[in-house]
Predict the structure.
Amino acid sequence: MIVPKGLSSGVISSQILQMGKYQYAQNFNEVKVWLHKNDYKNQKGDYVELIIKRYTNVSEIKSRLKFGDSIYMRSFLDYCALFLTIKLKKMRSIYDFRGLLSHESFYKNKNCIKLFIIYLIEYFIYKTSKEIYCVSNEMKKLLSKQYGFRNINVRPSLTSVCIEKQSSLSIDKVLKFVYLGGTSRWQMAKETLLLYSDISKTYSSTLLIITNDEDYFNSLINQLKIVDSVIVKSVNQDEVHSLLKECDFGFLLRENHIINTTASPIKMLEYLGAGVIPI
């Protein structure tokens, strides 16, 4: 299992390590998980069923791959870098579409050339990988429509926490809102703050923003003049759940766009897992 560089420790744990532990470890004699060295040191948890290795560059892994093995990937860069080795060693490739990068790229950059290049790469992967996974039935339909029908397995996003029951709400108390995420355009961070600004004028409320982009949010909060009721925090992944449990409502605004309608947002599960009502 090749883990792309830069994934959060929460995603690595819930989306990859648990899959390796509870699915692949049951079907294979040995499961190796390759983590980038920067992500390796931050990873916690009990995964004795897995052999966890570290790498600096994915090309280092080529010589470690064995003839006839299966290999799980979710980065098109990793797939392209290892493709020839996979073919020469007759390995069974498993590719997991966790998003539609061609659509995401165009949504952010409106660059037709980049859209076309990534589209061709996705098509190449879709046609050459032995197994294909994706995150939702809607994405399965879109992949079949764009690239042709084939067998596709659906594996939605997962979380490692159990769903907790929310305490009763009353509009007479201070309502606690939370936003968990960054400043990517599709996350609608500015629209979220504008909505909260309107809510705070009617109800006694607070907003907790859990993010790694503190400067952006602090600047925006000052512009909207809602400093008194908003707290911005950057915390470790293992602290997020306990903070969410103290909140009532969680913002999860999305546009009616193909990258959202085909997604399986882990943020929804994190909210529900803490008893937070998504908005």
In short: The two ends are 35 Å apart (CA to CA). DSSP finds eleven helices and eleven strands in the chain.
